[in-house]
Amino acid sequence: MTGFESMWAALEPIGRHARTGGYRRYAWTGEDANLREWFAAEAQARGMELTLDRAGNQWAWWGDPDAEPGVVTGSHLDSVPDGGAFDGPLGVVSALAAVDALRGQGFVPSRPIGVVNFGDEEGARFGVACAGSRILTGALAADRAAGLRDGDGVTMAEAVRAAGLDPERLGRDEEALRRVSSFVELHVEQGRALVDLGRAVAVGSSIWPHGRWRLDLNGEANHAGTTRLADRDDPMLRLAEVVLAARREAGAHDCVATVGKVRVEPNGVNAIPSAVSAWLDARGPRERAVRAVAAAVGAAGGGTITEESFTADTAFDAALVTRLAAILDGAPVLGTGAGHDAGILAAAGVPAAMLFVRNPTGVSHSPAEYAEPQDCLAGVSALTAALVELTG
Ligand SMILES: [Zn+2]
Q: At what angle do helices 373-391 and 3-11 cross, to 10 degrees?
């Protein structure tokens, strides 16, 4: 087995659900602890110094970033509910494999190289995507983060403490940020652009503006058999309006919009619901259009719509993008509708870029997400070349 394959095999069973085959790797859970332990062991096996920032993100360093800021690569290891194996882990495993390749070549970097494992990228448990990088940069305030609750009512502060960290330390980490001169995140493509282009690797140019909103639709709980239709106040009907409006408004504004999560009270087959909460995810190339979609969907629900997170349009570092595309044999340059930690760092002023690896199914956030072994290795080669370019 290559180093890549053995790392992949070690990660494979962690958090994999037996029935669905999908991954359930949520922030600050036992699965997350196993993933962090794996990362720490990989850092140690390479003699890389492991540091933890104030947001709980793990950094493995080759060289001393306090002497001179380093070039960082890496991604995240957590997943969405029943997610695929590649979204996140491909970037972390490829980063470690690139370090191995550089060392195998006897390469001596002119500045430190770091590999990062960002925590809670998907926001599957506490509802805020890229929580680890947002706390690191201060884009998510520490007190707000600490108070976020999961579906069981557990706060992030409680979850962080249960995982053995001090929630009082959560917050923007100047020291950790100072160590980063630039960031290149490799990621599986979450679409089919590379399939259509017949290329294995692309350079990411920008991340669309995107946001998450919550709608709380209230009604009156009652008996499903004895309550006349005319007497009902059923919030599930307004949910239907909301879902249809999301599709219609997204189409009208050249965006995408999804209602992918709902919570129903009391959630009984024979009970008219008393309350329905629904979450809207909307994205598009233009912020005004995305906000217009959210406003129209809120209006369709007949009530208020609460913004849980919003990330403005993020252009990656133009010079870095051009440089990477040039050394990668004129690799295609693509924008994306998916949020990433690289976007959060870029918004905080860190020169950042991404590499995307072809996904033949075009499917992501699902067990169908995939990358061919030879494309994974092409990704490692591209990332290795990028690190040589930036630290040579
Ligand atoms: Zn990801």
A: 110
